[in-house]
Design a protein that fits this description.
Layout: E1 6-13, H1 18-36, E2 41-49, E3 52-60, H2 64-71, H3 74-85, E4 88-89, E5 92-93, E6 98-105, H4 108-114, E7 128-135, H5 144-162, E8 168-181, E9 184-197, H6 204-218, E10 229-232, E11 248-249, H7 254-257, H8 278-295, E12 301-308, E13 317-321, H9 330-340, H10 345-352, H11 386-392
Parallel strand pairs: 3-6, 9-10
Antiparallel strand pairs: 1-8, 2-3, 2-11, 4-5, 7-12, 8-9, 12-13
Helix pairs in contact: 1-3, 5-6, 8-10, 9-11
Length: 393
């Protein structure tokens, strides 16, 4: 039996964190290509440092003339992202930093293995394993530590951008240590919050006075007590932030992007990759399946693993684990999954309607535990497979 009484910690980083700046730009490039052609192929990577952003990788459109045209838009896409995040520092400013575009056309050798042709269905874009997870400890069916770590930074970004808290800068990190009793989250033993600030005269105590009301607002009532330890800007001043303070790279925050370490991770990053690439789309599908299993009342907690081989359309394996909390045997859940959803790359994309420009919004504050959007964003958070799964077991 798993432990019931323990403390578990997860962290989040803001949209202004150097790695998240890069994730945002990579996903904005992806959205631009998908807006032009739903079947566009994109594998965009971004690197950022002092006064410089470098974008590289592979892209593909069926119309080669349009591909050339879109290559010319990349610089402005990057500047728009940096401006929206809020960087106007001397050594990292949206209007003056140097943007280098090294994107090139997709390899024909990769395309021939992935694309559908004749009687061959579209294959997976790479080999790999993908995990999805859900737990009923929060209303979003997400682990509490990562869900609330995201919520804190999302709220601070809102008040920063609205002008309510002009002293805050774009770069920030949060970390929550959540107390579990009888397997359920009941409180917070420590709060760690480091945030960039634009006024050099502000002390750690001053920053705590700014952020504490918003943290109290976000966390469930009673979770913060006199025993909770607070570490707000524990190293002192944090004025130089973003890529000027530390280099950033797409795909370095895969645990922040998923379940905060509360569940396995297959190792693949998401941002900048179009949905033919199963390390993104199949991870979304696995979350969708795990969430629907929990929403259906089949288990309090569920992990789903999918595996693929490059150029092969059907998954090599489907694995379910309900961590001893299930009312339905894991092998029956696996059988039900096969009956209720096609897990080929095309099947996933069509079921979740992933061939849309919906990815830039995923680049910060988590890919999971978000409300589905009317335009199809976060479709993998829907619980519309519940009845089909129930019928299949």
């Amino acid at each position: 039996m798993s432990r019931q009484n323990y403390t578990f910690t997860s962290e989040s980083v803001s949209e202004g964190h150097p790695d998240k700046v890069c994730d945002r730009i990579s996903d904005a490039v992806l959205d631009a290509f998908l807006a032009e052609e739903p079947e566009a192929r994109v594998a965009a990577e971004t690197f950022a440092t002092t006064n410089r952003v470098v974008i590289g990788g592979e892209v593909g459109l069926s119309d080669k003339d349009k591909l050339t045209d879109y290559m010319g838009r990349i610089e402005q896409i990057a500047r728009d992202c940096i401006k929206d995040i809020g960087y106007e520092q001397d050594k990292f400013h949206w209007n003056t930093c140097e943007i280098t575009n090294l994107l090139h056309e997709q390899s024909a050798h990769i395309a021939q293995g992935v694309d559908a042709a004749g009687n061959k269905d579209e294959g997976a874009g790479d080999q790999g394993i993908m995990f999805g997870f859900a737990t009923n400890e929060t209303s979003a069916l997400m682990p509490a530590p990562i869900q609330y770590s995201h919520a804190i930074l999302r709220r601070l970004a809102e008040v920063r951008k609205s002008g309510a808290e002009p002293a805050l800068g774009p770069d920030a990190k949060s970390q929550l240590s959540v107390i579990y009793q009888d397997g359920k989250p009941v409180g917070v033993s420590s709060v760690v919050l480091s945030t960039q600030h634009l006024d050099e005269s502000l002390s750690s105590a001053d920053i705590r006075a700014i952020v504490e009301p918003y943290i109290v607002e976000v966390l469930p009532e009673g979770w913060l007590t006199d025993a909770t330890q607070w570490h707000v800007n524990p190293t002192g001043k944090f004025v130089i932030g973003g890529p000027d303070g530390d280099a950033g790279l797409t795909g370095r925050k895969i645990i922040v992007d998923t379940y905060g370490g509360a569940a396995p991770h297959g190792g693949g990053a998401f941002s900048g990759k179009d949905p033919t690439k199963v390390d993104r789309s199949a991870a979304y599908a696995a979350r969708y399946l795990a969430k629907n299993v929990v929403a259906a009342g089949m288990a309090d907690k569920c992990t789903i693993q999918l595996s693929y081989a490059i150029g092969v359309s059907e998954p090599l394996s489907i694995y379910a684990d309900t961590h001893g909390t299930g009312d339905v045997a894991p092998q029956d859940i696996e059988k039900a999954i096969r009956q209720t959803m096609s897990l080929t790359p095309r099947g996933i994309r069509e079921h979740l309607q992933l061939n849309k420009p919906i990815y830039q919004r995923t680049a910060a504050y988590g890919h999971f535990g978000r409300e589905p959007d009317a335009d199809g964003g976060f479709s993998w958070e829907k619980t519309n497979l519940v009845e089909a799964l129930k019928k299949a077991v």
